Amino acid sequence: MSQMAYETIIGLEVHAQVLTASKMFCACSADYADATPNTHVCPVCMALPGALPVINRAAVEKTLLAGLALNCTISGHAVFARKNYHYADLPKGYQISQYELPFCRDGWLEIDAGEGPKRIGITRAHLEEDTGKLVHAAEGGRLMGAAGVQTLVDLNRAGVPLLEIVTEPDLRSPDEAYAYLIQLQRILRYLGVSTADMEKGAMRCEANVSVRPPGQSAYGTKVEVKNLNSFRSVKLALEYEVRRQIGALEHGERVVQVTMGWDEEAGRTVLQRSKESADDYRYFPEPDLPPLEVSRTWVEELRASLPELPDAKAARFVAELGLDPKEAALLVEERPVAEYYEAAAGELQAKYTQGGPPRAASAQAAAKSAFNWVTGELFRLMKAGGIDIASVSVTPAALADLLALIDEGRINQNSAKRALGVMFETGRSAAEVMQELGLAQVSDADALAEIVAKVIAANEDQVAKYRSGKESVFNWLLGQVMRETRGKGNPALVRELVEAALKE
Questions:
Q1: Residue ranges matching CATH 1.10.10.410 in the chain
Q2: What is the pLDDT of residues 328-359, one digit of tens each?
Q3: pTM
Q4: Yes or no: is domain 445-503 CATH 3.40.30.10?
């Protein structure tokens, strides 16, 4: 392969299941994850003769919210269409989707492209229904051979609302595609539009990729890549497909417009079929559904209800709370974590300004302390317990109470960690746990001086080593004193007293 620098062109089509109680065009439950096959079905989603669809308002609303967050123009007039194709898991023989008149168009999403922010154009965001699912039956513990394959159809998923978001061909590398998907997933979750969990099929991605030699303005022949069920798969598949296309061109071959599938085990793309065009689907307006009129009043009400999105929240944490950009980025990964953190920092700041702890009364001090404990000890306990922030029994106010006790000198860091563990398990207050476990910090200088003197007298050999220049012994002596206080000694005061004793 030559060293010619080909340019990569990538566009993505993302399908995200919309979080609604019922399906897109019927009243069947959309929560089918653990259901017995074909139990969340009705005449509408089974496409029985005479059954008529009814539009799910909640799905429309969440689609509009996503369009607003993606800076799209919202159409006041939208039309559902029939997209005709024949798969075994598509009972009607067509999918109700949108084509010429979608809800949202001409938007953009900003990503971190490594060399600064980059806007990726959003061609359209529209609403449609999901298909069913094919299950290949097993015989004797093995999949049946090609000659006798049994394929079962589960229609529980058929008709679940699906939001399709299509980009412009603005992505220039697999890394940019990866960054786009991460950012899109974060926004959909912040909005409550979708869980956007690729591993569970709640968000699925198809990529269109082509390459072109330097100086060429026309796009190369694009190839669609399917079967991408994780962020890792997207990146690996695109890297492989780019190499494959460049290799073909370098050998004088022609890239053909086809649909490729990603084979995770083999680590390569494989041919699936020739690529369909819009004409192949024979789109026409759905005759059983009227055109949908979206009022400007409704759109503006939805715009006003948009939450603060992750990038804006991270920027505010940096500007107002003095966090490092990397710290802010970690906190805003998940909206519940960001909200928990901000509530804890706010509660602690309120205690500072009310004359509580003797620490500097600043939002920055509260923000840093809350950050350290939320992303440190609290995250550790959550990981060990296998729970998320929504299930944590320690409220933001309770965490702030514990941090205030540290600042007041009533409990030290090690004892506070122990107290937080008990609070995490029981939901009890910091003051209660500190009192019941006897974790109150010892700050009585006379009492601590006696313990220091006792440790010094009992370890003359170690003291001699320290005085002869082995400074590492100092920390060992500190540890012995803290052990005598059962971890409750005021660390700063203990250090001061040990230093004074060693100088005598």
A1: 445-503
A2: 999 999 999 999 999 999 999 988 777 555 55
A3: 0.84
A4: no
